[in-house]
Amino acid sequence: MILLDYRDKRPLYEQVVEKLEHLIVCGVLKPDSKMPSVRALAMELSINPNTIQRAYALLEQAGFLYTIVGRGNFVAPEESWQGGKQSALKEELSKAFENALSAGMDRDSIIALLDNVRQKLEEEAANDSNK
Amino acid sequence: MILLDYRDKRPLYEQVVEKLEHLIVCGVLKPDSKMPSVRALAMELSINPNTIQRAYALLEQAGFLYTIVGRGNFVAPEESWQGGKQSALKEELSKAFENALSAGMDRDSIIALLDNVRQKLEEEAANDSNK
DNA sequence: TAAGTGTATTAATTCTCTTAATACACTCCA
DNA sequence: TGGAGTGTATTAAGAGAATTAATACACTTA
Questions:
Q1: pLDDT at position B43, please?
Q2: Cα distance between residue B19 and residue B4, in whole Å
Q3: Of the candidates A10, A33, B81, B121, which lies 20 to 30 Å from B21 by C-alpha distance?
Q4: Are B110 and B58 found together in one domain?
Q5: Covered bases, chain C (protein CB within 7 Å)
Q6: CA nearest to nucleotide C15 C1': residue
Q7: pLDDT tens digits, B68-117
Q8: Measured between alpha carbons, how far is residue B49 from residues A86, B4, B43 in Å?
Q9: Do A93 and B96 touch (CB under 8 A)?
Q10: What CATH number is attached to the domain comprising A40?
Q11: Which long-range contacts (CB under 8 A, 24 or more apart) does A94-98 make?
């Protein structure tokens, strides 16, 4: 189902969270479908069940999964995680705006910076598709 | 010159940075005046010179000090640290923009959020002055 | 009730951060 | 010119947090 990278310096549970989140967002894992049990997935990846448990707990907290004790973990419907993602991003943006504005940066230069980043991302996207 | 708090869970070098930065920003330490040597300040605080060295290095990186090897550390002029604060803010903004854009948020809604925050800040400012 | 599931607690381990010990290199001035 | 003062670099010791593992518990269902 997923593959771990032991050269990656990040903790295992974080890798698991990231990959499963990706599979859910991309629709590979459908809402209400059953996730592998903590033990099964742990076995498959040759790691401890608690590590999967931790990943599942985080995913549940973020709204990507829901749990029924004794039955298993299931993929949550889109509504439950779309909101969370959006508000996390907005939170991050708001905080940055607040800091910038109260330090005296003005609206125009903030927007200029935004367009800067947009252009950079577009260029990167163009490069990637040219490979 | 400064006083350490051993109940504070933060590292010593961070406390030193914070207190010295404060003394510089508030003008207690004047531009181009000489800072105590790493050994002298270490002795005064009964800690290792390397800890002061680390604090001084961070302060230099942030533009609060400049160093002349063999002579000592000196307080930097205002211009050199005001700029650093700006670029830290831009860095924060850029990161937030990158996340928002790659998650599909569009330019207009980002700007809308910005104006939202601006309005909120203005209202707060108005309230404060009415007190 | 047995097999499969999630959960809780505790401990071992690993790792990073912080601090210290020590040796090196530069500047200045008597 | 050499000694006292300065910053710098390298390495290692120590402490603490984060990660992972071991194990026992509790719930659900067939």
A1: 94
A2: 9
A3: B121
A4: no
A5: 4-9, 16-22, 25-28
A6: A9
A7: 999 999 999 999 988 777 888 898 999 999 989 988 899 999 999 999 99
A8: 47, 15, 8
A9: yes
A10: 1.10.10.10
A11: A94/B113, A94/B116, A94/B117, A95/B96, A96/B89, A96/B92, A96/B93, A96/B95, A96/B96, A97/B93, A97/B113, A97/B114, A97/B117, A97/B118, A98/B117, A98/B121
Per the listing, tokens 């298993």 go with: A72
Whether B61 and B37 map to the same domain: the answer is yes
Contact call for residues B117 and B123 (beta carbons, < 8 A): no
Whether CB of B71 is under 7 Å from strand D: the answer is: yes
Q: Which residue has the higher pLDDT, A110 or B99?
A: A110
Domain contains A122: yes
Kindly state the tokens that stand for B93: 């903004």
Would you say residue B38 lies in a domain?
yes
DSSP A62: T
B36, pLDDT greater than 80 = yes
Write out chain B residues lying below 8 Å of A115, CB-based: 107
| More confident: B40 or A102 | B40
Mean pLDDT, range A27-33, rounded to an integer: 95
**How many domains does chain A fold into?**
2
Domain that holds residue B103: 79-130
User: Of the candidates A59, A52, A30, A26, which has an alpha carbon nearest to the alpha carbon of residue A67?
Assistant: A59
Given a cut of 80, whether residue B16 has pLDDT beyond it is yes
Chain B residues with CB inside 8 Å of A96's CB?
89, 92-93, 95-96
**Distance CA B53 to C1' C22 in A:** 15
